[in-house]
Design a protein that fits this description.
This protein has helices spanning 11-23, 62-69, 129-132, 183-186, 189-200, 216-228, 249-255, 265-276, 305-314, 335-339, 359-367, 387-396; strands at 2-7, 35-39, 50-59, 85-87, 91-99, 111-114, 168-171, 175-177, 208-212, 233-237, 259-261, 280-281, 290-291, 295-300, 315-323, 343-346, 378-383, 404-408. The protein is an alpha/beta fold. Helix 5 (189-200) crosses helix 6 (216-228) and helix 5 (189-200) crosses helix 11 (359-367). The structure holds zinc ion (ZN) (2 copies).
Length: 409
């Protein structure tokens, strides 16, 4: 079968790609880059309850681009996934193609959502403390293969494979029925689950929040917050723009935002002050003001030093910053964290929420409901062979009118 394989086995090549990317964003998926189309064996279900799913539509995640660009992630995270080659694509929907022995909950031909994370039980390992607590996305055995493969799961391995190919392996417990969901919405299940989990990382103590970064995750975080808290006041912070209708604003409003601020950080802080009845306070040194009041929570879906800094300034004392964007090693002024007793809540993927519900199951219900307004998020589809153009479009983002770009298999 055809598969898009990212080869990270040569550190020199990864470093070269990272350097080349600065002048040419397409370096990683051009000739000699770390991503290439390969012909690989169709994976066979390895045991009881395993199936092969043929992906039909798979998204390109911002984290895929970061991985290919060799930028954005701290090297320390490589300790958790010793795999050096991976078939990418963890945002997939597809059709069950082959069922292994003992499969009881899905049949060949079923359309499914795929929850891509591997827990201890999928690898045949005795359950670790986190898996036992229903937090398998934080599995203590992430770096161990068991009788399968190490790493996060589908999209990060050549063993279970990834959605940018013609076949992935999944245990039936990783699949959810997608028969009532259009393909264009089903492909959003994974990022929507990321967003729901992020929304649940804030405990809901307050009534005014902001979401920074109206990309796929930001828009879906708005939609999740709106779904969870109908009366919540939600502001979205986008890139500064002089346009009267900047790209993405309509999608943010449709997802449930009350307003979108596309201003420079100083102006955003002035807007937060006005919005919360607060006052801007000017430090003797430094460019940006701080506030006496502020918002109850800020969801930073970008994770750059500039957005983390802005988020910390926007919060009221005892407010919560939910770090959704994949921040790496970076310089941030932490003074406000202790001075204002802020809470920083990290958020990664999904699993079971504090009430015991399965994140993916809630998202499945939402996607089947037309009142969950996320239809503008998928902007582009490309055939698998057109991956170079697809990745360049995704990397260009708003400049190409792109939010979520997906590959059709
Ligand atoms: Zn992702
Ligand atoms: Zn575990």
């Amino acid at each position: 079968m055809r598969a898009l394989v990212a080869d990270l086995s040569s550190l020199a090549r990864v470093a070269l790609t990272a350097a080349a990317t600065r002048v040419r964003p397409a370096a990683a998926w051009s000739r000699g880059g770390i991503l290439a189309m390969e012909e690989v064996n169709l994976p066979e279900p390895p045991g009881h309850g395993w199936v092969r799913v043929r992906p039909t539509l798979t998204g390109i995640c911002g984290s895929d681009l970061k991985l290919l660009h060799g930028t954005g992630f701290s090297p320390l995270l490589t300790a958790y996934n010793p795999e050096r080659r991976a078939i990418l694509g963890h945002e997939l929907t597809g059709v069950v193609e082959v069922t292994g022995p003992g499969t009881t909950t899905v049949r060949e031909g079923d359309r499914v959502l795929v929850e891509p994370t591997l827990w201890c039980r999928h690898k045949g390992l005795p359950e670790c403390g986190r898996c036992r607590a229903g937090e398998g996305h934080l599995c203590e055995n992430l770096s161990r293969a068991g009788d399968l493969c190490p790493g996060q799961g589908i999209g990060f391995s050549t063993v279970v494979g990834g959605g940018w190919s013609e076949g992935v392996l999944a245990h039936e417990s990783m699949l959810l029925d997608a028969s009532a969901i259009s393909e264009a919405r089903a492909v959003l299940a994974e990022p929507a689950a990321v967003a729901l989990h992020a929304a649940r990382r804030w405990h809901g103590n307050g009534d005014r929040v902001a979401v920074i970064g109206p990309g796929t995750i930001g828009l879906l975080t708005v939609a999740a917050l709106r779904r969870l808290h109908s009366g919540l006041d939600i502001s979205v912070v986008g890139e500064p723009s002089s346009s009267s209708r900047p790209f993405g604003v309509d999608d943010a409003l449709a997802a449930g935002a009350d307003r979108v601020w596309t201003r420079a950080p100083a102006e955003v802080l002035a807007l937060v002050a006005a919005h919360t009845g607060g006052t801007l306070l000017r430090p003797r040194f430094g460019r940006l003001p701080v506030l006496d009041r502020g918002l109850d929570a800020v969801f930073d879906c970008i994770g750059l030093p500039s957005t983390i800094d802005l988020a910390l300034r926007m919060l009221r004392a005892r407010g919560t910053l939910v770090l959704v964007g994949t921040a790496g090693r970076q310089r941030v002024d932490w003074s406000l964290v202790w001075w204002r007793e802020l809470t920083i809540a990290g958020s990664v993927v999904y699993g079971r929420e504090p009430d015991g519900s399965r994140t993916f199951e809630t998202v499945r219900e939402w996607l089947a409901d037309p009142a969950y307004h996320v239809d503008g998020v998928l902007t582009h589809r490309f055939a698998l062979d057109g991956y170079a153009e697809a990745l360049s479009t995704a990397a260009a983002g708003p400049a190409a009118g792109a939010i979520k770009v997906a590959l059709t298999v």
